[in-house]
Amino acid sequence: MRRLALVAATENGRRSAAHLARVLPGAEVYGGPAKEALARAWREADGIVAFLAVGATARLVAPLLGDKRTDPGVVCVDDARRFAVALVGGHEGGANELARRVAETLGAEAVITTASDVTDHPALDAFGRDLGFKLERGSDVASVASALVSGETVRLISEWRYPLGPLPENVVPGAPQPGVPSVVVSDRTGPFPTPSVVYRPPTLVVGVGCSRWASEGEILDLVSRSLQDAGLAPGSVASLASVDAKRDEAGLLGAAERLGVPVRFFPARELADRPVPNPSEAALRAVGTPSVAEAAVLASGAELVAEKRKSPMATCAVGRLPVRGRLYLVGLGPGDEALIPPLAREALARSEIVVGLAQYLERVRHLLRPGTRTVEPPLGREVERAGVAVEEARLGGSAALVSSGDIGVYAMASPALEIAGTDVDVVVVPGVTASQAAASLLGSPLGHDHASVSLSDLLTPWEVILKRLTAAAEGDFVVSLYNPRSKGRDWQLEKAKGVLLEHRPPDTPVGIVRDAYRPAQSVRLTTLADLDPESVDMLTVVLVGSSRTVVRAGRMVTPRGYEL
Protein backbone atom coordinates (compact mmCIF):
# COMPACT_ATOMS: atom_id res chain seq x y z
CA MET A 1 0.00 0.00 0.00
CA ARG A 2 1.28 3.47 -0.89
CA ARG A 3 2.05 5.64 2.14
CA LEU A 4 0.46 9.07 1.93
CA ALA A 5 1.66 11.98 4.09
CA LEU A 6 -0.69 14.89 4.90
CA VAL A 7 0.90 18.20 5.92
CA ALA A 8 -1.03 21.29 7.05
CA ALA A 9 -0.23 24.70 8.52
CA THR A 10 -3.70 26.16 9.22
CA GLU A 11 -6.75 25.03 11.18
CA ASN A 12 -8.76 24.55 7.98
CA GLY A 13 -5.90 22.54 6.51
CA ARG A 14 -5.66 20.36 9.60
CA ARG A 15 -9.40 19.63 9.45
CA SER A 16 -9.11 18.65 5.79
CA ALA A 17 -6.04 16.52 6.50
CA ALA A 18 -7.85 14.73 9.33
CA HIS A 19 -10.74 13.97 6.96
CA LEU A 20 -8.41 12.53 4.29
CA ALA A 21 -6.64 10.44 6.94
CA ARG A 22 -9.98 8.82 7.78
CA VAL A 23 -11.05 8.00 4.24
CA LEU A 24 -7.88 7.39 2.17
CA PRO A 25 -6.00 4.09 2.74
CA GLY A 26 -2.42 4.59 3.90
CA ALA A 27 -2.91 8.30 4.72
CA GLU A 28 -1.29 9.77 7.82
CA VAL A 29 -1.18 13.32 9.21
CA TYR A 30 2.37 14.60 9.74
CA GLY A 31 2.29 17.12 12.57
CA GLY A 32 4.65 19.90 13.58
CA PRO A 33 5.98 22.87 11.60
CA ALA A 34 5.32 22.51 7.88
CA LYS A 35 9.00 22.67 6.87
CA GLU A 36 10.00 19.86 9.22
CA ALA A 37 6.89 17.78 8.44
CA LEU A 38 7.52 18.04 4.69
CA ALA A 39 11.16 17.01 5.07
CA ARG A 40 10.17 13.97 7.11
CA ALA A 41 7.37 13.08 4.69
CA TRP A 42 9.79 13.37 1.76
CA ARG A 43 11.96 10.64 3.29
CA GLU A 44 9.14 8.32 4.34
CA ALA A 45 6.12 8.69 2.07
CA ASP A 46 5.22 7.76 -1.51
CA GLY A 47 2.93 10.78 -1.90
CA ILE A 48 2.38 14.08 -0.09
CA VAL A 49 -0.69 16.28 0.17
CA ALA A 50 0.30 19.75 1.42
CA PHE A 51 -2.50 22.03 2.60
CA LEU A 52 -0.40 25.07 1.70
CA ALA A 53 -0.14 27.62 -1.07
CA VAL A 54 1.62 26.42 -4.22
CA GLY A 55 4.40 28.99 -3.85
CA ALA A 56 5.06 28.11 -0.23
CA THR A 57 5.14 24.38 -1.01
CA ALA A 58 7.45 24.93 -4.01
CA ARG A 59 9.95 26.79 -1.83
CA LEU A 60 9.85 24.12 0.86
CA VAL A 61 10.33 21.14 -1.48
CA ALA A 62 12.88 22.77 -3.80
CA PRO A 63 15.90 21.75 -1.66
CA LEU A 64 14.51 18.20 -1.40
CA LEU A 65 14.15 17.48 -5.13
CA GLY A 66 16.34 14.66 -6.37
CA ASP A 67 15.25 12.26 -9.14
CA LYS A 68 11.76 12.19 -10.64
CA ARG A 69 11.91 8.39 -10.64
CA THR A 70 12.17 8.31 -6.84
CA ASP A 71 10.76 11.63 -5.56
CA PRO A 72 7.28 11.40 -4.02
CA GLY A 73 4.38 13.02 -5.83
CA VAL A 74 3.24 16.29 -4.23
CA VAL A 75 -0.26 17.77 -4.36
CA CYS A 76 -1.17 21.22 -2.98
CA VAL A 77 -4.65 21.99 -1.64
CA ASP A 78 -5.71 25.57 -0.92
CA ASP A 79 -7.25 26.56 2.43
CA ALA A 80 -10.76 26.76 0.95
CA ARG A 81 -10.44 23.27 -0.57
CA ARG A 82 -11.27 24.56 -4.03
CA PHE A 83 -8.29 23.14 -5.92
CA ALA A 84 -5.97 20.12 -5.70
CA VAL A 85 -2.84 21.00 -7.71
CA ALA A 86 -0.39 18.34 -8.89
CA LEU A 87 2.90 20.12 -8.19
CA VAL A 88 5.71 17.55 -8.42
CA GLY A 89 5.90 13.98 -9.75
CA GLY A 90 2.82 14.05 -11.93
CA HIS A 91 3.34 10.64 -13.51
CA GLU A 92 6.15 8.69 -11.87
CA GLY A 93 5.35 10.08 -8.41
CA GLY A 94 1.62 9.55 -8.95
CA ALA A 95 0.72 13.19 -8.22
CA ASN A 96 -1.75 13.49 -11.11
CA GLU A 97 -3.79 10.51 -9.95
CA LEU A 98 -3.45 11.62 -6.33
CA ALA A 99 -4.78 15.08 -7.24
CA ARG A 100 -7.83 13.47 -8.83
CA ARG A 101 -8.48 11.28 -5.79
CA VAL A 102 -8.08 14.17 -3.36
CA ALA A 103 -10.32 16.40 -5.48
CA GLU A 104 -13.06 13.75 -5.58
CA THR A 105 -12.84 13.24 -1.82
CA LEU A 106 -12.86 16.93 -0.89
CA GLY A 107 -15.23 18.15 -3.61
CA ALA A 108 -12.41 20.20 -5.15
CA GLU A 109 -11.16 20.58 -8.73
CA ALA A 110 -8.01 18.74 -9.80
CA VAL A 111 -5.44 20.95 -11.52
CA ILE A 112 -3.05 18.98 -13.75
CA THR A 113 -0.65 20.64 -16.17
CA THR A 114 1.43 17.81 -17.69
CA ALA A 115 1.12 17.96 -21.47
CA SER A 116 0.04 14.35 -21.98
CA ASP A 117 -2.82 14.69 -19.51
CA VAL A 118 -4.21 17.98 -20.78
CA THR A 119 -4.03 16.79 -24.41
CA ASP A 120 -5.48 13.34 -23.59
CA HIS A 121 -2.30 11.54 -24.64
CA PRO A 122 -0.90 8.59 -22.67
CA ALA A 123 1.80 9.50 -20.18
CA LEU A 124 4.82 7.51 -21.30
CA ASP A 125 6.42 7.32 -17.87
CA ALA A 126 3.22 5.72 -16.49
CA PHE A 127 2.09 3.85 -19.62
CA GLY A 128 0.74 0.37 -18.84
CA ARG A 129 1.44 0.74 -15.12
CA ASP A 130 -1.91 -0.83 -14.24
CA LEU A 131 -0.88 -3.85 -16.37
CA GLY A 132 2.44 -4.21 -14.57
CA PHE A 133 4.60 -2.76 -17.37
CA LYS A 134 8.10 -1.66 -16.40
CA LEU A 135 9.78 1.17 -18.27
CA GLU A 136 13.19 0.04 -19.53
CA ARG A 137 16.05 2.24 -18.40
CA GLY A 138 17.59 4.16 -21.28
CA SER A 139 14.28 4.61 -23.09
CA ASP A 140 14.07 7.90 -24.99
CA VAL A 141 10.93 9.15 -23.26
CA ALA A 142 11.51 12.82 -24.16
CA SER A 143 11.79 12.29 -27.92
CA VAL A 144 8.84 9.91 -28.20
CA ALA A 145 6.66 12.01 -25.90
CA SER A 146 7.39 15.10 -27.97
CA ALA A 147 6.40 13.28 -31.16
CA LEU A 148 3.27 11.93 -29.51
CA VAL A 149 2.03 15.31 -28.28
CA SER A 150 2.98 16.99 -31.57
CA GLY A 151 0.80 14.61 -33.58
CA GLU A 152 3.65 12.88 -35.42
CA THR A 153 3.26 9.21 -36.30
CA VAL A 154 4.38 6.93 -33.47
CA ARG A 155 4.68 3.19 -34.06
CA LEU A 156 3.27 0.76 -31.50
CA ILE A 157 5.42 -2.37 -31.76
CA SER A 158 4.18 -5.47 -29.95
CA GLU A 159 3.86 -9.16 -30.80
CA TRP A 160 0.65 -9.39 -28.79
CA ARG A 161 -2.31 -7.19 -28.11
CA TYR A 162 -2.63 -5.82 -24.60
CA PRO A 163 -5.63 -4.09 -22.93
CA LEU A 164 -4.01 -0.67 -23.22
CA GLY A 165 -7.20 1.33 -23.65
CA PRO A 166 -7.85 3.85 -26.44
CA LEU A 167 -4.73 5.35 -28.01
CA PRO A 168 -4.37 8.57 -30.04
CA GLU A 169 -4.85 8.35 -33.81
CA ASN A 170 -1.18 9.04 -34.41
CA VAL A 171 -0.17 5.86 -32.53
CA VAL A 172 -0.19 3.24 -35.29
CA PRO A 173 0.42 -0.49 -34.66
CA GLY A 174 2.84 -2.08 -37.10
CA ALA A 175 6.39 -2.98 -37.95
CA PRO A 176 9.25 -0.65 -36.97
CA GLN A 177 10.37 1.98 -39.46
CA PRO A 178 13.78 3.69 -39.43
CA GLY A 179 13.64 7.09 -37.76
CA VAL A 180 9.97 6.77 -36.73
CA PRO A 181 9.49 7.14 -32.94
CA SER A 182 8.26 3.90 -31.42
CA VAL A 183 6.51 2.58 -28.34
CA VAL A 184 7.70 -1.01 -27.84
CA VAL A 185 5.95 -3.53 -25.60
CA SER A 186 8.04 -6.69 -25.52
CA ASP A 187 9.64 -9.29 -23.27
CA ARG A 188 12.41 -9.79 -25.85
CA THR A 189 15.80 -8.15 -25.69
CA GLY A 190 15.64 -6.41 -29.05
CA PRO A 191 17.18 -4.72 -30.98
CA PHE A 192 14.59 -1.94 -31.19
CA PRO A 193 14.42 1.16 -33.42
CA THR A 194 15.48 4.60 -32.27
CA PRO A 195 14.05 6.68 -30.80
CA SER A 196 11.90 4.31 -28.80
CA VAL A 197 10.34 3.78 -25.40
CA VAL A 198 10.52 0.16 -24.30
CA TYR A 199 8.12 -1.43 -21.81
CA ARG A 200 8.56 -4.82 -20.20
CA PRO A 201 5.23 -6.62 -19.62
CA PRO A 202 5.12 -9.16 -16.75
CA THR A 203 4.86 -12.19 -19.03
CA LEU A 204 7.68 -14.52 -17.98
CA VAL A 205 7.68 -17.25 -15.33
CA VAL A 206 11.00 -18.80 -14.36
CA GLY A 207 10.79 -22.30 -12.93
CA VAL A 208 13.62 -23.13 -10.52
CA GLY A 209 14.68 -26.42 -8.99
CA CYS A 210 17.62 -26.55 -6.62
CA SER A 211 19.52 -28.75 -4.21
CA ARG A 212 19.61 -27.98 -0.51
CA TRP A 213 21.87 -24.99 0.22
CA ALA A 214 22.07 -23.82 -3.40
CA SER A 215 23.30 -20.24 -3.19
CA GLU A 216 21.40 -17.16 -4.20
CA GLY A 217 24.24 -16.18 -6.52
CA GLU A 218 24.23 -19.51 -8.37
CA ILE A 219 20.46 -19.35 -8.91
CA LEU A 220 20.60 -15.74 -10.10
CA ASP A 221 23.45 -16.53 -12.49
CA LEU A 222 21.55 -19.50 -13.94
CA VAL A 223 18.37 -17.46 -14.38
CA SER A 224 20.32 -14.64 -16.02
CA ARG A 225 22.06 -16.96 -18.50
CA SER A 226 18.80 -18.74 -19.32
CA LEU A 227 17.05 -15.48 -20.11
CA GLN A 228 20.00 -14.10 -22.07
CA ASP A 229 20.36 -17.19 -24.23
CA ALA A 230 16.63 -17.18 -24.96
CA GLY A 231 16.72 -13.47 -25.88
CA LEU A 232 14.33 -12.57 -23.05
CA ALA A 233 14.35 -9.51 -20.82
CA PRO A 234 14.80 -9.80 -17.02
CA GLY A 235 12.38 -6.89 -16.60
CA SER A 236 9.53 -9.11 -17.83
CA VAL A 237 9.98 -11.78 -15.16
CA ALA A 238 6.68 -11.86 -13.25
CA SER A 239 7.51 -14.65 -10.78
CA LEU A 240 9.65 -17.62 -9.93
CA ALA A 241 8.04 -21.03 -9.45
CA SER A 242 9.15 -24.18 -7.68
CA VAL A 243 8.03 -27.19 -5.66
CA ASP A 244 6.52 -26.97 -2.15
CA ALA A 245 9.55 -28.70 -0.64
CA LYS A 246 11.64 -25.59 -1.42
CA ARG A 247 9.49 -23.11 0.52
CA ASP A 248 12.24 -22.51 3.06
CA GLU A 249 15.20 -22.61 0.65
CA ALA A 250 17.19 -19.47 1.49
CA GLY A 251 18.98 -19.22 -1.85
CA LEU A 252 15.74 -19.41 -3.83
CA LEU A 253 13.96 -16.89 -1.60
CA GLY A 254 16.94 -14.56 -1.76
CA ALA A 255 17.06 -14.76 -5.56
CA ALA A 256 13.38 -13.86 -5.78
CA GLU A 257 13.91 -10.90 -3.45
CA ARG A 258 16.84 -9.67 -5.55
CA LEU A 259 14.70 -9.92 -8.68
CA GLY A 260 11.80 -8.18 -6.92
CA VAL A 261 9.29 -10.92 -7.76
CA PRO A 262 7.25 -13.46 -5.77
CA VAL A 263 7.78 -17.22 -5.75
CA ARG A 264 4.88 -19.62 -6.39
CA PHE A 265 5.15 -23.07 -4.90
CA PHE A 266 3.27 -26.16 -6.11
CA PRO A 267 2.71 -29.57 -4.50
CA ALA A 268 4.94 -32.30 -5.90
CA ARG A 269 1.90 -34.41 -6.91
CA GLU A 270 0.60 -31.52 -9.07
CA LEU A 271 3.98 -31.10 -10.78
CA ALA A 272 4.30 -34.85 -11.30
CA ASP A 273 1.14 -34.82 -13.45
CA ARG A 274 2.67 -32.36 -15.94
CA PRO A 275 4.25 -33.93 -19.06
CA VAL A 276 7.63 -32.27 -19.65
CA PRO A 277 10.38 -32.65 -22.28
CA ASN A 278 13.16 -33.29 -19.78
CA PRO A 279 12.09 -35.44 -16.79
CA SER A 280 14.63 -36.48 -14.17
CA GLU A 281 14.77 -39.64 -12.05
CA ALA A 282 16.98 -37.78 -9.56
CA ALA A 283 14.30 -35.11 -9.03
CA LEU A 284 11.64 -37.83 -8.60
CA ARG A 285 13.71 -39.48 -5.86
CA ALA A 286 14.53 -36.19 -4.16
CA VAL A 287 11.18 -34.33 -4.11
CA GLY A 288 8.57 -36.71 -5.52
CA THR A 289 8.22 -35.28 -9.03
CA PRO A 290 10.29 -36.00 -12.18
CA SER A 291 10.36 -32.29 -13.00
CA VAL A 292 10.50 -29.11 -10.96
CA ALA A 293 11.65 -26.27 -13.21
CA GLU A 294 9.71 -27.17 -16.36
CA ALA A 295 6.65 -28.52 -14.53
CA ALA A 296 6.44 -25.42 -12.31
CA VAL A 297 6.40 -23.23 -15.42
CA LEU A 298 3.50 -25.24 -16.85
CA ALA A 299 1.65 -25.29 -13.52
CA SER A 300 1.82 -21.49 -13.51
CA GLY A 301 -0.24 -21.41 -16.70
CA ALA A 302 2.72 -20.48 -18.90
CA GLU A 303 3.92 -21.98 -22.17
CA LEU A 304 7.45 -23.34 -22.05
CA VAL A 305 9.76 -21.15 -24.18
CA ALA A 306 13.18 -22.14 -22.80
CA GLU A 307 13.71 -25.74 -21.71
CA LYS A 308 15.56 -26.79 -18.58
CA ARG A 309 19.20 -25.97 -18.17
CA LYS A 310 21.45 -26.90 -15.26
CA SER A 311 24.13 -25.55 -13.00
CA PRO A 312 25.86 -27.70 -10.37
CA MET A 313 23.07 -27.24 -7.77
CA ALA A 314 20.10 -25.75 -9.66
CA THR A 315 17.87 -26.12 -12.70
CA CYS A 316 15.96 -23.42 -14.55
CA ALA A 317 13.28 -23.18 -17.27
CA VAL A 318 11.37 -20.20 -18.65
CA GLY A 319 7.76 -19.87 -19.75
CA ARG A 320 5.55 -17.14 -21.18
CA LEU A 321 2.13 -16.34 -19.73
CA PRO A 322 -0.72 -15.71 -22.17
CA VAL A 323 -1.84 -12.12 -22.53
CA ARG A 324 -5.23 -11.60 -20.93
CA GLY A 325 -7.70 -9.02 -22.13
CA ARG A 326 -9.83 -7.05 -19.72
CA LEU A 327 -13.62 -6.86 -19.53
CA TYR A 328 -15.22 -4.11 -17.47
CA LEU A 329 -18.84 -4.69 -16.47
CA VAL A 330 -20.01 -1.20 -15.58
CA GLY A 331 -23.09 -0.04 -13.70
CA LEU A 332 -23.88 3.60 -14.57
CA GLY A 333 -26.43 4.16 -11.81
CA PRO A 334 -29.68 6.05 -12.44
CA GLY A 335 -29.99 9.09 -14.67
CA ASP A 336 -28.00 11.78 -12.84
CA GLU A 337 -24.40 12.02 -14.02
CA ALA A 338 -23.25 12.81 -10.47
CA LEU A 339 -24.27 9.26 -9.52
CA ILE A 340 -21.93 7.64 -12.06
CA PRO A 341 -19.27 6.28 -9.69
CA PRO A 342 -15.59 7.21 -10.08
CA LEU A 343 -14.69 3.56 -10.73
CA ALA A 344 -17.09 3.57 -13.68
CA ARG A 345 -15.51 6.71 -15.12
CA GLU A 346 -12.06 5.15 -14.77
CA ALA A 347 -13.19 1.93 -16.46
CA LEU A 348 -14.73 3.82 -19.37
CA ALA A 349 -11.53 5.82 -19.85
CA ARG A 350 -9.52 2.58 -20.03
CA SER A 351 -11.74 0.80 -22.56
CA GLU A 352 -11.03 0.61 -26.28
CA ILE A 353 -14.63 -0.35 -26.99
CA VAL A 354 -17.81 0.39 -25.01
CA VAL A 355 -20.88 -1.74 -25.64
CA GLY A 356 -24.42 -0.92 -24.56
CA LEU A 357 -27.83 0.37 -25.50
CA ALA A 358 -27.79 3.68 -27.36
CA GLN A 359 -29.47 5.60 -24.52
CA TYR A 360 -26.81 4.41 -22.06
CA LEU A 361 -23.92 5.26 -24.36
CA GLU A 362 -25.35 8.72 -24.95
CA ARG A 363 -25.13 9.36 -21.20
CA VAL A 364 -21.40 8.63 -21.07
CA ARG A 365 -20.09 9.59 -24.51
CA HIS A 366 -18.40 12.70 -23.09
CA LEU A 367 -16.50 10.49 -20.61
CA LEU A 368 -14.86 8.39 -23.33
CA ARG A 369 -11.34 9.09 -24.49
CA PRO A 370 -10.66 9.99 -28.13
CA GLY A 371 -10.39 6.86 -30.23
CA THR A 372 -12.86 4.82 -28.17
CA ARG A 373 -15.25 2.77 -30.34
CA THR A 374 -18.87 2.20 -29.39
CA VAL A 375 -21.21 -0.64 -30.34
CA GLU A 376 -24.96 -0.30 -29.82
CA PRO A 377 -26.92 -3.55 -30.42
CA PRO A 378 -30.61 -2.78 -29.94
CA LEU A 379 -32.88 -3.88 -27.09
CA GLY A 380 -33.62 -7.59 -27.24
CA ARG A 381 -30.13 -8.60 -28.41
CA GLU A 382 -28.61 -8.93 -24.96
CA VAL A 383 -26.55 -12.05 -25.72
CA GLU A 384 -25.08 -10.32 -28.78
CA ARG A 385 -24.16 -7.31 -26.66
CA ALA A 386 -22.41 -9.48 -24.10
CA GLY A 387 -20.68 -11.47 -26.83
CA VAL A 388 -19.21 -8.41 -28.55
CA ALA A 389 -17.62 -7.18 -25.33
CA VAL A 390 -16.33 -10.60 -24.26
CA GLU A 391 -14.81 -11.31 -27.67
CA GLU A 392 -12.93 -7.99 -27.64
CA ALA A 393 -11.41 -8.93 -24.29
CA ARG A 394 -10.60 -12.44 -25.52
CA LEU A 395 -8.54 -10.89 -28.31
CA GLY A 396 -6.44 -9.09 -25.71
CA GLY A 397 -8.21 -5.74 -25.75
CA SER A 398 -10.10 -3.79 -23.12
CA ALA A 399 -13.88 -3.58 -23.36
CA ALA A 400 -16.65 -2.14 -21.22
CA LEU A 401 -20.19 -3.45 -21.18
CA VAL A 402 -22.53 -0.89 -19.63
CA SER A 403 -25.98 -0.94 -18.09
CA SER A 404 -27.98 1.55 -16.09
CA GLY A 405 -28.35 0.96 -12.37
CA ASP A 406 -26.11 -1.85 -11.16
CA ILE A 407 -24.94 -4.13 -13.97
CA GLY A 408 -25.30 -7.16 -11.73
CA VAL A 409 -29.00 -6.56 -10.93
CA TYR A 410 -31.41 -7.49 -13.76
CA ALA A 411 -28.72 -6.36 -16.19
CA MET A 412 -25.82 -7.51 -18.37
CA ALA A 413 -23.30 -8.95 -15.91
CA SER A 414 -24.97 -12.37 -15.83
CA PRO A 415 -24.95 -13.10 -19.59
CA ALA A 416 -21.41 -11.73 -19.93
CA LEU A 417 -20.06 -13.87 -17.10
CA GLU A 418 -21.80 -16.94 -18.48
CA ILE A 419 -19.81 -16.45 -21.70
CA ALA A 420 -16.47 -15.20 -20.34
CA GLY A 421 -13.82 -17.81 -19.57
CA THR A 422 -10.64 -17.85 -17.52
CA ASP A 423 -8.72 -16.25 -20.40
CA VAL A 424 -10.28 -12.85 -19.61
CA ASP A 425 -9.77 -10.60 -16.58
CA VAL A 426 -13.17 -9.33 -15.44
CA VAL A 427 -13.69 -6.17 -13.37
CA VAL A 428 -17.24 -5.61 -12.11
CA VAL A 429 -17.99 -1.95 -11.32
CA PRO A 430 -21.07 -1.57 -9.09
CA GLY A 431 -23.64 1.17 -9.56
CA VAL A 432 -26.63 2.59 -7.71
CA THR A 433 -29.55 0.23 -8.36
CA ALA A 434 -33.02 1.36 -9.48
CA SER A 435 -34.50 0.31 -6.14
CA GLN A 436 -31.81 2.20 -4.20
CA ALA A 437 -32.40 5.30 -6.29
CA ALA A 438 -36.16 5.07 -5.83
CA ALA A 439 -35.79 4.37 -2.10
CA SER A 440 -33.60 7.46 -1.59
CA LEU A 441 -36.29 9.65 -3.14
CA LEU A 442 -39.01 8.08 -1.00
CA GLY A 443 -37.15 8.20 2.33
CA SER A 444 -35.92 4.91 3.80
CA PRO A 445 -38.31 2.14 2.77
CA LEU A 446 -35.45 -0.39 2.54
CA GLY A 447 -34.37 0.22 6.13
CA HIS A 448 -35.01 -3.41 7.07
CA ASP A 449 -35.19 -6.74 5.23
CA HIS A 450 -36.28 -6.39 1.61
CA ALA A 451 -36.54 -8.36 -1.62
CA SER A 452 -36.58 -7.48 -5.32
CA VAL A 453 -38.83 -9.21 -7.83
CA SER A 454 -39.01 -8.58 -11.58
CA LEU A 455 -42.53 -8.94 -13.00
CA SER A 456 -41.22 -9.48 -16.55
CA ASP A 457 -42.08 -12.97 -17.77
CA LEU A 458 -40.03 -12.66 -20.96
CA LEU A 459 -37.22 -14.77 -19.50
CA THR A 460 -38.82 -16.19 -16.34
CA PRO A 461 -42.12 -18.11 -16.35
CA TRP A 462 -44.96 -16.36 -14.56
CA GLU A 463 -45.46 -19.38 -12.30
CA VAL A 464 -41.90 -18.93 -10.97
CA ILE A 465 -42.38 -15.18 -10.51
CA LEU A 466 -45.64 -15.80 -8.65
CA LYS A 467 -43.94 -18.32 -6.34
CA ARG A 468 -41.16 -15.87 -5.48
CA LEU A 469 -43.57 -12.98 -4.97
CA THR A 470 -45.75 -15.07 -2.68
CA ALA A 471 -42.71 -16.06 -0.61
CA ALA A 472 -41.67 -12.41 -0.25
CA ALA A 473 -45.21 -11.45 0.73
CA GLU A 474 -45.48 -14.25 3.29
CA GLY A 475 -42.08 -13.35 4.70
CA ASP A 476 -43.20 -9.73 5.24
CA PHE A 477 -40.33 -8.31 3.18
CA VAL A 478 -40.43 -4.83 1.70
CA VAL A 479 -40.74 -5.62 -2.01
CA SER A 480 -39.18 -3.71 -4.90
CA LEU A 481 -41.05 -4.47 -8.11
CA TYR A 482 -38.90 -4.16 -11.24
CA ASN A 483 -40.32 -4.15 -14.80
CA PRO A 484 -43.80 -3.75 -13.33
CA ARG A 485 -45.81 -3.05 -16.46
CA SER A 486 -45.45 -2.45 -20.20
CA LYS A 487 -47.75 -2.20 -23.21
CA GLY A 488 -47.32 -5.88 -23.92
CA ARG A 489 -47.49 -6.94 -20.26
CA ASP A 490 -50.37 -5.02 -18.71
CA TRP A 491 -51.82 -7.58 -16.26
CA GLN A 492 -48.93 -8.75 -14.04
CA LEU A 493 -48.91 -5.76 -11.66
CA GLU A 494 -52.60 -6.21 -10.89
CA LYS A 495 -51.95 -9.88 -10.10
CA ALA A 496 -48.95 -8.93 -7.91
CA LYS A 497 -51.08 -6.40 -6.05
CA GLY A 498 -53.62 -9.13 -5.30
CA VAL A 499 -50.94 -11.47 -3.93
CA LEU A 500 -49.54 -8.76 -1.66
CA LEU A 501 -53.02 -7.80 -0.38
CA GLU A 502 -53.49 -11.38 0.78
CA HIS A 503 -50.63 -10.89 3.25
CA ARG A 504 -50.64 -7.23 4.27
CA PRO A 505 -53.22 -4.54 5.09
CA PRO A 506 -54.77 -2.29 2.43
CA ASP A 507 -53.18 0.84 3.97
CA THR A 508 -49.62 -0.53 3.50
CA PRO A 509 -47.49 2.37 2.12
CA VAL A 510 -46.44 2.08 -1.52
CA GLY A 511 -43.91 4.31 -3.30
CA ILE A 512 -44.05 4.84 -7.06
CA VAL A 513 -40.94 6.37 -8.61
CA ARG A 514 -40.64 7.04 -12.32
CA ASP A 515 -37.47 8.19 -14.12
CA ALA A 516 -35.45 8.47 -10.90
CA TYR A 517 -32.80 11.19 -11.06
CA ARG A 518 -33.78 12.19 -14.58
CA PRO A 519 -35.43 15.43 -15.75
CA ALA A 520 -38.89 13.79 -15.96
CA GLN A 521 -38.64 12.30 -12.44
CA SER A 522 -41.85 11.79 -10.48
CA VAL A 523 -42.28 10.47 -6.94
CA ARG A 524 -45.64 9.48 -5.45
CA LEU A 525 -46.84 7.87 -2.24
CA THR A 526 -50.02 5.81 -2.14
CA THR A 527 -51.33 2.69 -0.41
CA LEU A 528 -51.48 -0.89 -1.55
CA ALA A 529 -55.26 -0.71 -1.91
CA ASP A 530 -55.06 2.49 -3.98
CA LEU A 531 -52.17 1.40 -6.21
CA ASP A 532 -53.30 2.02 -9.78
CA PRO A 533 -51.47 -0.22 -12.27
CA GLU A 534 -52.52 2.12 -15.09
CA SER A 535 -50.20 4.79 -13.62
CA VAL A 536 -47.12 2.57 -13.90
CA ASP A 537 -44.83 1.75 -16.85
CA MET A 538 -41.42 0.19 -17.54
CA LEU A 539 -39.59 3.32 -16.37
CA THR A 540 -41.16 2.92 -12.91
CA VAL A 541 -40.06 1.13 -9.76
CA VAL A 542 -42.80 0.23 -7.27
CA LEU A 543 -41.78 -0.18 -3.62
CA VAL A 544 -44.33 -1.96 -1.43
CA GLY A 545 -43.79 -1.61 2.31
CA SER A 546 -43.84 -4.37 4.89
CA SER A 547 -46.35 -4.54 7.76
CA ARG A 548 -44.01 -2.24 9.74
CA THR A 549 -43.45 0.40 7.05
CA VAL A 550 -44.91 3.83 7.94
CA VAL A 551 -45.10 7.32 6.45
CA ARG A 552 -43.50 10.04 8.60
CA ALA A 553 -43.49 13.68 7.49
CA GLY A 554 -44.26 12.59 3.94
CA ARG A 555 -41.44 10.05 3.87
CA MET A 556 -41.69 6.26 3.60
CA VAL A 557 -39.80 4.58 6.46
CA THR A 558 -39.27 0.95 7.45
CA PRO A 559 -38.01 1.04 11.08
CA ARG A 560 -34.99 -0.98 12.13
CA GLY A 561 -36.46 -1.39 15.61
CA TYR A 562 -34.27 1.03 17.55
CA GLU A 563 -35.79 2.53 20.70
CA LEU A 564 -36.45 6.22 20.04
From TrEMBL:
Keyword Cell division: no
CobE/GbiG C-terminal domain ranges (all copies): 204-318
Residues annotated as domain Cobalamin synthesis G N-terminal: 37-117
Position of the signal peptide: none
Single biological process term from Gene Ontology: cobalamin biosynthetic process
Pathway(s) the chain acts in: Cofactor biosynthesis; adenosylcobalamin biosynthesis
Cobalamin biosynthesis central region domain segment(s): 122-201
Protein name: Precorrin-3B C(17)-methyltransferase
